[in-house]
Amino acid sequence: MSFQSLGLSDALVRAVAEQGYTRPTPIQAQAIPAVLAGGDLLAGAQTGTGKTAGFVLPMLQRMSTSSATHAPSGSRGARTPVRALIVTPTRELAAQVEASIRTYGRHLRFKSMTLFGGVGFGGQAAQLKRGVDIVVATPGRLLDHAQQGNLDLSKVEILVLDEADRMLDMGFLPDIRRILALLPAKRQNLLFSATFPDEIRALAGRLLDRPRTIEVTPPNSTVDVIRQKVFDVGRDRKRELLSWMIGRNRWSQVLVFTRTKHGADKLAQALERDGIRAQAIHGNKSQGARTKALADFKEGGVHVLVATDIAARGIDIDQLPRVVNYDLPNVPEDYVHRIGRTGRAGADGEAISLVCVDEHAFLRDIERLIRRTIPRETVAGFEPDPGERAQPVFRQQRGRGQQHAPGANHASARKPGAPRGGSHAQSRGHAQGDARPAGRSGGHTHGAARGHAPAATSTRSSGSQRRRATAR
Asked: How many CB atoms neighbour CB 459 within 10 A?
């Protein structure tokens, strides 16, 4: 099967060929014809399967052949309304998707841009006023521009919600509902998700009209080509073991996950002291620092990139050989997302987890989710102390939805006298990377919606609450 046989134009096929791709991946082979047919789509695919091209290519094809009801891009007169809107949970993923649009649309005449926090608001507003066909945005900054009147969404023909499960995890459902209210009733909706929990199916039921459903991998499965391994280690020996592994095996490109932003900074600094070139990437870093760290990592100037889950979402590195879980995630679905950074597009990959006695319950949850037992080893000299006893990573009450990090506020807590919802608007900005402009009206409403979410009852909802409580 070729890309041309899927119904793509010569311009798109040529752009794909220029990237060295000749045959579509399974998700592309199914999604491209489905999107070209014009109906709604619910697609499940793990990261690294080529899902971005699975919606970008047919979206560009449909836009290039449909007769727009407004002036074409670049014409004089009224501002060009947005024709396609792609909503993503993080800055990095937004940047990656928009780069794919420019790559595959290089022989077409469409203008695209990203909207996310951490960069100047005024420059984005000016670009919107000049006219743009395709917008790739994180929810908060998109709503900021819509509220300021910078964004015309009344003519959107195609809406894409990418990595919808992560957006639900991060608590963006109220924002998604507000975005949907700004769009025309008649449009094509595409929902892409790595996992299909009940909440995603419920959202799809409300959003999609008789969608075609595609699942190229079983729900919550891990990529088969990824070799997974657990190393049991003492609580205080993890950093030494990681440095030893990197040096002994001469690893030159390793993506390492920590549970918190502070932990990422601390580990990167310790690795630097060990003579290993390392940088941290997380929500407290400026967008410029995050972009530079990722570029240095891709180019080989940095050997180890230490990241939190949210900052790493959307990182796309061809042939990334190895992912290390320095801290196991406390939400098992995050394990699937993490290790999906390697083994992309059919390439081999390795996922290593350094597990201490405190994390055995997390490991059991992960193995239950992926329906397999991960092989376990120890390295001589780094074995856990048999007398070491588990310490709680979180203070826990009986209800899973009540778990929270020591010292962290509950989702509904706020300081006495603080503006209602203010602390939560800030928390979401850190998690998503959406810095809100000073003086923004309506921020009160966003914070209130986030601060008064219903109590979590399901496993995924409790994971979302834990993520908001845990500093990243």
From this structure: 17
